[in-house]
Write a structure and sequence with these properties.
Elements lengths: L12 E5 L3 H10 L3 E9 L2 E6 L3 E6 L5 E7 L5 H11 L3 E2 L1 H8 L10 E2 L1 H11 L16 H9 L3 E6 L2
Parallel strand pairs: 6-7
Antiparallel strand pairs: 1-2, 1-5, 2-3, 3-4, 5-8
């Protein structure tokens, strides 16, 4: 992969292809190669909920990066940062992850988040309220970000082809 990090701007969405058993299950059941998503904060840092760790700011990772998206309108990054502060420290939500990997057969846990849930919330608090229609953040799967791109909510910045 030839990826130039200098193209990244705060608010870019980083979509990753599956690289773990959970990721493969999420990708397979959602009909997508995408299984994880983060938001670039800037300065080599991402806002994310990582498997088994939870919601925090993490060093940018490039392994398995597959697609970079941006919103059609600029995000209000001050509102994003404030919204993220309210999520930071929440546990990783294995229950919602199972819901995404089993067609919604189980519910989520309070004070616990999966990656797509955090990012759907941040996109909305950042000013793109229409993203994902009527879905609640815990109903949004990583593949829904690709669907939203196909419907004009996001545009592609980079793709690993």
């Amino acid at each position: 992969m030839n990826f130039d990090q200098s193209i990244l701007k705060p608010g870019h969405l980083l979509l990753y292809r599956a690289s773990s058993i959970f990721g493969y299950a999420i990708a397979a059941f959602s009909g997508s190669r995408i299984s994880h998503i983060e938001m670039y904060k800037g300065g080599g840092i991402s806002y994310a909920s990582r498997d088994g760790i939870g919601v925090n700011e993490y060093p940018l990772r490039l392994n398995d990066l597959d697609l970079v998206l941006e919103t059609r309108r600029p995000l209000d990054m001050a509102r994003v940062a404030k919204g993220f502060a309210g999520k930071k420290g929440h546990r990783f939500d294995y229950v919602t992850m199972l819901k995404h990997a089993t067609f919604g057969l189980v519910g989520g846990k309070p004070m616990a988040e999966v990656c797509s849930e955090v990012q759907a919330y941040l996109v909305r608090v950042g000013g793109i309220e229409e993203a994902f229609g009527d879905k609640q953040p815990d109903e949004v799967k990583p593949s829904d970000f690709v669907d939203a791109m196909n419907h004009g909510v996001f545009r592609k910045v980079w793709e690993n082809v």
